[in-house]
Amino acid sequence: MTKEEIIEALVEKNTRRDMAVMYADAFCEYREASENIDRNGVIVQHPRTANPIDNPYLKIRDGALKKLQGMRNVPAAFLW
Which of 10, 15, 54, 74 has the lowest CB atom count within 10 Å? Predict the structure, then answer.
């Protein structure tokens, strides 16, 4: 689903538009970060030194998840 589709689906479930937008932003951020981690793994090579480092998307995913958990009252189970 696109961000706009997520927003519209949440609004149809009686979620205020501002909350729907915030949830959709965090959900898309979480989804994109998770896809990057799935594709590249949790340990990646640093682009300049080639040393192993934690995938920077781990922090992004975890931050987005924290935002989503703070919006537990949004009826978004259908997205998961």
Answer: 54
